[in-house]
């Protein structure tokens, strides 16, 4: 949101500027400061309307008001039927899955994330697979969690999420040494740079 103009001296903050300030609070996890700004800012009828509601949902969730946050996501989707783009296709489904896990409905999250993981438009498929693994763990499906973490670690070894996947696998994966060696060889064949990076850290 840095493209929003900063507040100048001697004039009041515009709605867009308040929203930009609230977003910065959300991004630094200062949800208590963000929520009043987002609640008081009216961006209805503007291109930022859906994003304003989305960030209000994030602020509510950060304050453990998951039910209200989920209702806002519903409101966004109901007010924009058929709308496409990152917010509607990726951000909201991922966040809804997070809320399902927080509300002790991890199986709902698993179902949603499995469907989402098959989409080609994802900007960060590794995030989706990691969240799928965590949701599967919460649902008691250890095998599915391992498969999701392996997907990240072995198929996207140069991603930032690969280290998280490695740590999660170390806790869960009980594959034999021989099986792991085969997986590591396949990983190195697909991604030589990853193999070099690992060898340099040893």
**Per the principal axes of the C-alpha atoms, what is the gross shape?**
elongated
Bin the helical content.
over 70%
Count of discrete alpha- or pi-helical segments spanning 4 or more residues: 11
Q: Strand content of the residues, in percent?
A: under 5%
Task: Report low-confidence residues grouped into runs of 5 or more.
Answer: 198-202
The description of the largest β-sheet is: none
Number of strands: 0
- What is the first-to-last residue Cα distance? 40 Å
Coarse structural class:
mainly alpha
The sequence of SSEs as H and E is HHHHHHHHHHH
Gyration radius, in Å = 20 Å
Mean pLDDT: 87
Overview of this structure, please?
The chain has helices at residues 15-27, 31-40, 49-62, 66-79, 86-102, 106-117, 125-138, 142-155, 161-172, 177-190, 192-201. It is elongated, with a radius of gyration of 20 Å. Residues 198-202 have low confidence and may be disordered. It contains 11 helices and no strands. With 202 residues, it is mostly helical.
Summarize this structure as a short list of keywords or feature phrases.
202 residues, mainly alpha, 11 helices, disordered C terminus
Task: Summarize this structure briefly.
With 202 residues, this protein is mostly helical. The chain has helices at residues 15-27, 31-40, 49-62, 66-79, 86-102, 106-117, 125-138, 142-155, 161-172, 177-190, 192-201.
